[in-house]
Amino acid sequence: MKRVMGGVGVPSISICCLFQTGPPRSLSLKFRLKPSFSHSITTMALTNNTNERKLPILLFDIMDTLVRDPFYQDVPAFFGMPLKELIDIKHPTAWIEFEKGLIDEMELARKFFKDGRDFDLEGLKTCMRSGYSYIEGIEQLLFSLKKNNYEMHAFTNYPIWYQLIDDKLKLSKYLSWTFCSCTFGKRKPDTEFYKEVVRHLNVDPTDCIFVDDRQTNVEAATEVGIKGVHFKNVDLLCEKLSMMGIDI
């Protein structure tokens, strides 16, 4: 996500849903962005005293699962309007296209609003970066999981601006930004995205646990055999992971 922009006085839904009125049609791939730093999988975690890969692999949604999404409060304040008004005047598919890597940020700025009005793109990026923060208790959990040698990957609907998140919070200390929609051109809950994740990791789906704040995305994971956990808060997440045999 569990999301101008929006993977909640509005229901707890991801930014992507807020910006989508229908699926993008026949979008050209010529604008697919190439991230400036590696998306390769981090070195496979090894179990103590063996050369075997430690399973299960943990897959995490980012927005409103690990990181606070600034869209719902900070971004409307930046534009000086209520959230509902912002949603009403945004372009119906521009954010989705940006999120899938089909357009770059300059094209996003050009078509962000339905009426094509100009706005301060760099100011918006600064606003969002300022609003990113760890969900309470999450960094401690990630630290513990990393210490116990679990292999962890981001599995998120987000554009190239995920780099802004990492620049501020250094999430890559704990997990790899392996599965971003802007890199694969697919978004959750498209089951093909989940299948591609499993193929890329070269493991059985049951060897993965996926955590997301959106129930729809969790259900899509279970459809392909991945174990899903609906994120609500860090205490419940720790309890569920422990029940699944994860050493926290």
CATH-scheme architecture of one domain: 3-Layer(aba) Sandwich
The structure class reads alpha/beta
CATH homologous superfamily of one domain? HAD superfamily/HAD-like
Write down the CATH class of one domain: Alpha Beta
Radius of gyration: 18 Å
- Rounded mean pLDDT score: 86
Principal-axes geometry comes out as globular
Considering DSSP H and I runs of 4 or more, what fraction of the residues is helical? 25-40%
| Major sheet strand order | 3-2-1-4-5
Distance between the termini: 23 Å
> Largest sheet at a glance?
5 strands, parallel
How large is the count of helical segments? 12
Give me the strand/helix succession.
Answer: HEHHHHHHEHEHHEHEH
